[in-house]
Amino acid sequence: MRWRILALPILAIIMSGCASRSGPDFATMSQHVGPPRAGQGRVVVFREKAYGGIFDEGWNVKIDDVQLGDLKTGTYAYADRPAGHHQLSSEVSMLPGVTHFDITIAPGRTYFFVATPSDRAKAVSAMAAFGVTGLVITTAATSGARNPGPLDFLPVEETAARAAITDLRKAE
Length: 172
Prior knowledge:
Layout: H1 2-19, H2 26-33, E1 40-47, E2 59-63, E3 66-71, E4 75-82, E5 84-91, E6 99-105, E7 110-117, H3 119-127, H4 131-141, E8 151-156, H5 158-164, E9 169-170
Parallel strand pairs: 1-7, 4-9
Antiparallel strand pairs: 1-4, 2-3, 2-5, 5-6, 7-8
Helix pairs in contact: 3-4
């Protein structure tokens, strides 16, 4: 019984440390940074608020192989890029495969994407409870999946995206 009395305050301290986020919220960042430079567009990738688990591992998100940041629960990352063809990508530890998502940027526009676990990643995570056998079966069964990587980047209309990420924090 005594271990519970000691464990609960320690767990509360650990959990409160996980919940804090540094970096500006999206509205503040937008006011300070302003629109993209002439000839460039902006790509914003966000991860919605939710329970991130005890260990909220950041998702490694890149654009054109340049790290945007570790996208943790309730955070966003952005980059300004010249107009033209670009690629979002992601690799997440403990999940096989790489996500590649092609986009074409028009000058002066901002593009919003929500990052979510892919169907394959969800299946692999669910079957991980069954150990190595479950992982082998799931990996084989999902090898022909539309997206072999861990994340899906889903386009979000600007008004909805701005409402969804108003109080999210910038990923570091």
